[in-house]
Write a structure and sequence with these properties.
By secondary structure, the chain is an alpha/beta fold. It folds into 2 domains: 3-292, Aminopeptidase, CATH 3.40.630.10; 294-377, Urease, subunit C, domain 1. It is 28% helix and 28% strand. The chain has 9 helices and 17 strands. The strands form 4 sheets. The protein has an 8-stranded mixed beta sheet, sandwiched between helices. Strand 12 and strand 13 (323-334) form a beta hairpin. Helix 1 packs across helix 9.
Length: 380
């Protein structure tokens, strides 16, 4: 699909009722109820706390794609993008028609509704569902397993969000979007299904390079059979991990949302119109690996107790009154010349102190600091 076409499609497809980071069942039920009749909405199970887990099935094609989002409840960017995709698929666009004619999509918008409501990674039993693929101790894990077995997908999309700490390779480029074709065994074998997933990732990367050049990364492919993606890849189904990351100054993840929309449509269109055999997998290895080289803020050249050091601050996301706030916490006080930041402040060798002339400490919360007696806010 042409990049300008996708941008235009997003402008009319964006679901304006969904925004920022806090998305739970309360935000999506009315949207599900208002989908056109060719979208089948089912309750496919319940969470630990009895919240409904929904699926949306649309399309009549032979190629079957299973997608799930918010397996980690505090990773909502891909959920927003899915509802943007729903809006696109209701249009008369020729690409939308081709996707629905050639593919059948089954989408779980929020797999972990309890985690989504509490804005936590884990479910109500404090279990990471993405480490429960083998033990299957949680009702949400069983819902996904049953859905997988009943639907018999040809492709799986495991949709997540990643922290602001990741760079695309060893560079001062944030990994705004990351992908992975998970390993299916300890040897990380290049099986046909894994190559197919790599080929689809390569196509999405080519599209993204036109809008965020050098800002796409590949997640670590160390094998862990307890992870859902690794398990489904192990079962022979091409599986793609999506990680929605940090676009500059986009802590609401609205810019990233548009890029996920771009990637989803690009991949759907490619699968719909091609017999994907994995032959175009090699360019996958040109995408740089994710590195943990970013902080939210670095105060450079700070006089800390008479020593010139750098101060790294990371935001902690917290749910407050049904919205997400970002609390600045000091992560490191040391020489950080090999790290980058989304915001840099140069203290120019001046003293840097906390409130009431307090000494700054790692793991402490600081809304502001004093640099050479001048108050500097650390909030967004």
């Amino acid at each position: 699909m042409d990049i300008e076409l996708i941008k235009n499609a997003y402008s009319f497809s964006k679901e304006k009722s969904l925004h920022h980071r806090y998305i739970c069942n309360d935000h999506i039920v009315s949207l599900l109820n208002n989908l056109p009749s060719n979208f089948r909405v089912d309750v496919i199970g319940e969470s630990v706390n009895g919240e409904d887990i929904f699926s949306v099935t649309v399309g009549k094609g032979d190629k079957r794609l299973l997608l799930w989002s918010q397996m980690h409840g505090n990773e909502s960017t891909t959920t927003k993008a899915l509802f943007d995709v729903f809006n696109f698929l209701t249009s008369n666009n020729s690409y939308a028609k081709a996707i629905l004619n050639n593919c059948t999509l089954k989408i779980i918008p929020i797999l972990n509704p309890d985690g989504a409501r509490a804005y936590t990674r884990v479910n109500a039993n404090e279990v990471d569902l993405n480490r429960d693929a083998q033990n299957l101790t949680q009702p949400e894990s069983l819902v996904l397993k049953t859905c997988f077995e009943d639907f018999k997908p040809d492709y799986c999309y495991n949709l997540h969000g990643q922290r602001t700490i990741f760079s695309a390779g060893k560079s001062n480029n944030s990994a705004i979007v990351s992908f992975l074709s998970p390993a299916q065994d300890e040897a990380r074998s290049l099986s046909k299904n894994r190559k197919i997933a790599m080929e689809v990732v390569s196509v999405m990367n080519n599209a993204l390079q036109q809008v965020i050049p050098n800002k796409v990364g590949i997640y670590d492919d160390a094998f862990n059979i307890n992870c859902v993606g690794d398990t489904f890849q192990h079962k022979g189904v091409p599986t793609i991990l999506f990680e929605a990351g940090h676009f500059p100054n986009d802590y609401a993840r609205e810019e990233t949302r548009a890029l996920i929309f771009n990637s989803l449509l690009t991949s759907f269109n490619y699968i719909a119109n091609n017999n994907v055999e994995g032959e175009g997998y090699e360019s996958y290895f040109d995408i740089p690996a994710n590195e943990k080289l970013f902080f939210d803020i670095i105060i450079r050249n700070a006089d800390v107790n008479g020593e010139i050091l750098d101060i790294a601050i990371q935001y902690e996301e917290r749910l407050k009154e049904n919205s997400i706030i970002f609390v600045p916490k000091i992560q490191k006080i040391s020489k950080l010349e090999n790290f980058y930041a989304h915001r840099e402040i140069n203290a120019n060798n001046s003293k840097v102190l906390g409130a009431k002339n307090g000494t700054l400490k790692e793991e402490s919360e600081n809304d502001f600091v004093f640099i050479n007696n001048q108050k500097t806010s650390l909030y967004l």
